[in-house]
TrEMBL record:
One term of GO molecular function: carbamoyl-phosphate synthase (glutamine-hydrolyzing) activity
Organism: Niabella digestorum
Ranges for domain Carbamoyl-phosphate synthase small subunit N-terminal: 6-136
Keywords: Amino-acid biosynthesis, Arginine biosynthesis, ATP-binding, Glutamine amidotransferase, Ligase, Nucleotide-binding, Pyrimidine biosynthesis
Protein name in UniProt: Carbamoyl phosphate synthase small chain
Residue numbers binding L-glutamine: 50, 228, 230, 257, 260, 298, 300-301
């Protein structure tokens, strides 16, 4: 029997059990179950540090069909804690591919399961909401799995950004560039940094808990607040840094976790969503321009709409056309704005990349 045919079991916090086959590493893993509706881009999803602490169901019926490519990564390793799939393709076809998804997940020590009814599972999560789960290809005693699952912490209240942030500062782009951007790394995706260097910026990425005084010695023209995993409300250190940056009055742009932190720094609440938004086709309306965009998303927390509407500090710039959730804000009288979705859109449509142009334009304007 090959490894891909070895037995695996999935147990959800509400007692739901699904049987399937193991892929990736043999072992046991637990975390928050979530689902991504994108039809492509599994490698970018699995290496996105925002997924740390989560086990992701891929809605696409096949995963692995185009293998993996060394450069298609958003960080240096796989960050999801497990993958749940319907059909795993052992054979792959893509000229640039260097290995199979199965081999890649094995190398990254990621325990995964395939052969489960992912449509039923996604419908279940959509109805019941986010919860923890455990996958095992070594323990089949349900009581033992239940015990281990009970020890898995709830996503609410977890500070995870510092676990995936860079340990040391690093730089990207042309050091002689006209524009310097300081990145507060809470688990940034590499393609976000690329969207800034491609627009002529020199970028320096700082570890999550770097004091602002140290970041200021880089003399940045603007600050970028990154995406990342965990509960934004559990990140007091980052909320304080964002508040300090607002006092600096320098241009600031936040994506996803960065958006939630900008809201929290302005006294707005965040909340745990029922099951979150993860996919490549979420319609968002820019209410400043009146134009709509199809966006890439990955979040399980959101900015509380009532608290934004009651705020005299920020205004809403973007709304989700599916559920009217808050997708973008800007701070009144300050050069600071943020979006809940992922404008770098890897994977996904490039409708929202204008936000990086806006950020660069804001920096240039602010310097005059
Ligand atoms: N992509 C992100 O930055 C995710 C932000 C946060 N961890 C959430 O789940 O909402």
């Amino acid at each position: 029997m090959s490894d891909t045919q070895a037995r695996a079991i999935l147990l959800l916090q509400d007692g739901t059990i699904a049987e399937g086959f193991a892929f990736g590493a043999i072992g046991t893993t637990s975390g928050e179950i979530c689902f991504n509706t994108g039809m492509t881009g599994y490698q970018e999803v699995f290496t996105d540090p925002s997924y740390y602490g989560q086990i992701v169901i891929m809605n696409a019926v096949h995963v692995g069909n185009y293998g993996v490519v060394p450069e298609d990564v958003e960080s240096d390793s796989v960050k999801v804690l497990g993958v749940i799939a319907k059909n795993l393709n052992e054979n792959y076809s893509r000229s640039k591919a260097t290995e199979s998804l199965d081999a890649y997940l094995k190398k990254n020590n990621i325990v995964s399961i395939h052969g489960v009814d992912t449509r039923a599972l996604v419908a279940h999560i959509r109805t019941k909401g986010a919860m923890n789960c455990i996958i095992s290809s070594e323990i089949f005693d349900i009581e033992e799995l239940k015990r281990r699952l009970a020890e898995t912490p709830d996503m609410s209240g977890q500070e995870l950004a510092s676990k995936v942030s860079t340990k040391k500062p690093y730089e990207l782009g042309d050091p002689n560039a006209d524009i310097k951007i300081a990145v507060l790394d809470y688990g940034t995706k590499q393609n976000i940094l690329k969207c800034m260097t491609e627009r002529g910026a020199f970028v320096k990425v700082f570890p999550a808990k770097t004091p602002l005084a140290k970041i200021k010695s880089f003399n940045p023209d603007g600050y970028f607040i990154s995406n990342g995993p965990g509960d934004p409300a559990a990140m007091d250190y980052a909320i304080d840094t964002v508040k300090e940056i607002m006092n600096e009055n320098k241009p600031m742009f936040g994506i996803c976790l960065g958006h939630q932190l900008l809201a929290l720094a302005n006294g707005i609440k965040t909340f745990k969503m029922h099951h979150g938004h993860r996919g490549l086709n979420h319609p968002v309306k820019n209410i400043i321009t009146g134009r709509s965009e199809i966006t890439t998303q990955n979040h399980g927390f959101g900015v509380d709409p009532e608290s934004v509407k009651a705020s005299d500090k920020v205004e809403i710039t973007h709304v989700n056309l599916n559920d009217h959730s808050i997708e973008g804000i800007r701070v009144k009288g300050k050069p600071a704005f943020s979006v809940q979705y992922h404008p770098e859109s890897t994977p996904g449509p490039h409708d929202s990349r204008y936000l990086f142009d806006d950020f660069i334009a804001m920096i240039k304007e602010h310097r005059q």
